[in-house]
Amino acid sequence: ETGVTQSPTHLIKTRGQQVTLRCSSQSGHNTVSWYQQALGQGPQFIFQYYREEENGRGNFPPRFSGLQFPNYSSELNVNALELDDSALYLCASSGNRGLAGAGELFFGEGSRLTVL
Amino acid sequence: DQQVKQNSPSLSVQEGRISILNCDYTNSMFDYFLWYKKYPAEGPTFLISISSIKDKNEDGRFTVFLNKSAKHLSLHIVPSQPGDSAVYFCAAFAQNRDDKIIFGKGTRLHILP
């Protein structure tokens, strides 16, 4: 069983640039969530995709956008990068639409983004 | 506004003793609670969960207790082992209402030899 994989693992960008982070979900999982974990904080929910549609969003501005593909892999795009976007971005997959009765997310190792 | 609070950033416990990690929540709509464990350079991994219809759930050395009236939950690890040294996140969500899992800031647990 293939776990959740994310790429790249580390990257450095400058303010104003755009970044795309990628995630391959665990085999058999059709739901992908993205989280931002700033230093010293817990993961914060960005949004969730189920069968290629966004079905939940946290308090992040529209410059944070995403996609889910037919094979359930996903991308997180961030435009007009700001210094505060520096964080670990975690992708998590699950096998249910939403998490009712489960709550078990399978996380990747994350992509650490540094914005200079 | 932090809906899930872990007020202890770190905790040190002697190997073999009990580790108790605490978590408070403010949103009364939460009805499912989870603990995740995170090692450096790895993603969080699910540890144990509890539904609000229960007040205790046990899985091996790990037990989660839920006090709904106090909006408080705790994770007990007995006995503590060196491999338990990690960051522990408390998390919660409202089933059938909002699929958004809210995480606390985490507690770093150090198991001392």
Question: How would you characterize the overall build of this protein?
Answer:
- The complex is a heterodimer of chains A (116) and B (113).
- Chain A has no helices and 11 strands.
- Chain A has strands spanning 5-7, 10-13, 19-24, 31-37, 44-50, 53-57, 64-68, 74-78, 87-94, 106-107, 111-115.
- Helices cover 0% and strands 58% of the residues of chain B.
- At the A-B interface, strand 5 and strand 10 of A face strand 4, strand 5, strand 9 and strand 10 of B.
Key features of this structure:
heterodimer; A: 116 residues; 4-stranded antiparallel beta sheet; globular; B: 113 residues; 6-stranded mixed beta sheet; 5-stranded antiparallel beta sheet
Low-confidence stretches of chain A: 97-101
Radius of gyration computed on alpha carbons of chain B: 13 Å
For the biggest sheet of chain B, the summary is: 6 strands, mixed
- In helices, the fraction of residues of chain A equals under 10%
Q: Please state the average pLDDT score of chain A.
A: 90
Shape, per Cα inertia axes of chain B: globular
- How much helicity do the residues of chain B have? under 10%
Layout of secondary structure:
The complex is a heterodimer of chains A (116) and B (113).
Chain A: E1 5-7, E2 10-13, E3 19-24, E4 31-37, E5 44-50, E6 53-57, E7 64-68, E8 74-78, E9 87-94, E10 106-107, E11 111-115
Parallel strand pairs in A: 2-11
Antiparallel strand pairs in A: 1-3, 3-8, 4-5, 4-9, 5-6, 7-8, 9-10, 9-11
Chain B: E1 4-5, E2 10-14, E3 19-25, E4 32-38, E5 45-51, E6 56-59, E7 62-67, E8 72-77, E9 86-94, E10 98-103, E11 107-112
Parallel strand pairs in B: 2-11
Antiparallel strand pairs in B: 1-3, 3-8, 4-5, 4-9, 6-7, 7-8, 9-10, 9-11
